[in-house]
Amino acid sequence: MVGEEPYLRKDGTLTNIRWWRSQCVRCGVAFDVATPVGVTSLEHSGSFGRIHCDTHKLTLTEVAQRWSESMKKKREAA
Fold first, then answer.
1. DSSP letter, residue 16
2. What is the DSSP string of 50-72?
3. In angstroms, rounded to a whole number, what is the distance separating the alpha carbons of residues 26 and 36?
4. pLDDT tens sequence across 39-62
5. Spatial CA neighbour of 4 closest among 15, 66, 50, 77
6. What is the arrangement of strands in the sheet containing 30-36, beginning at the earlier edge strand?
7. Which residues pair with 18 in a beta bridge?
8. 10 Å Cβ neighbour count for 48?
9. Residue 45 near residue 39 (C-beta atoms within 8 A)
10. Per-residue DSSP letter, 41
11. Where is 74: in which H helix or E strand?
12. Cα–Cα distances in Å, from 59 out to 24, 36, 42, 43, 56?
């Protein structure tokens, strides 16, 4: 964790968010992700699943293409 700051929710209540730092698996550049204060592990937030910086994160088209290729390989293997 690299920090914590106040956050105003859409419903008007005040809470805090925590900032976490990771590194892009492609280029090594550091990037930050935010989570609610109660999140302490990757089991509780999808933010911890992020492995690429903004420059290298996949577009929805790329994600769909990779998923399609993966499913095709699974069908061929069966």
1. E
2. --S-TTTPPPHHHHHHHHHHHHH
3. 27
4. 765 555 666 678 888 899 888 898
5. 15
6. 3-8, 14-23, 30-36
7. 4, 35
8. 15
9. yes
10. S
11. helix 60-77
12. 15, 25, 22, 24, 9
